[in-house]
Amino acid sequence: MAVPYPSDELPPPSLDGYQLNPGQTFERSDLASGRAIQREGFGSVPTRAPVQWMFNQAEYMRFTGWFFHEIRKGASWFEGPMKTNIGIRNFKLRFRRMYQAVPSGPYYWIVSAELEIREHPVIERDWILYGPEYVRWGSIFDLAMNRDWPEQ
Predict the structure, then answer these.
(1) Which tens digit of pLDDT belongs to each residue from 61-112?
(2) Do residues 63 and 105 share a domain?
(3) Does one domain contain both 43 and 63?
(4) Same domain, 63 and 88
(5) Which residues constitute the domain of residue 130?
(6) Cα(63)–Cα(145) distance, integer angstroms
(7) pLDDT at residue 123, rounded to an integer
């Protein structure tokens, strides 16, 4: 089981500069004629995400303690919240390289890192085949169900 990110003690990554960089899922071969052949590559590729946190002094101390002692200096996978195309959920993550910390004023630190999401977040196939309208109108459906559905 992956070590959990201490969400109850530390903030989630900031959305400033946040992006998802999916790994290559297909192979391409350029031909001498100028055409190309493409084929499916790997079924499961990691997604990279550059992230930033803003910590106060106590949070930064807690983060470094967690990083060095609980996830073995960043070598181990951990479970933490990430915003993706399927919403904010917990994913298995790990650091791709050592984080960088820059002071921001006398009391705060901006910590930058590149994380790797183990599985590329993709909606399940059945939703696309059999319920595309629920995907398209999911936010309205969710609002209606949570506001208008009687509690039991």
Answers:
(1) 999 999 999 999 999 999 999 988 878 889 999 999 999 999 999 999 999 9
(2) yes
(3) yes
(4) yes
(5) 123-151
(6) 38
(7) 76
Residue 82, phi then psi, degrees to nearest 5: -140, 140
Q: Are 48 and 15 within one domain?
A: yes
Contact 76, 138 (CB under 8 A): no
Number of structural domains in the chain: 2
Residue predicted with more confidence, 7 or 146: 7
CA distance 68 to 143: 42
CATH number at residue 69: 2.40.30
For tokens 């391409």, what's the residue?
A: 28
Q: Which pLDDT band, with edges at 50, 70 and 90, does 2 fall under?
A: confident
Alpha-carbon gap, residue 111 to 101, rounded angstroms: 4
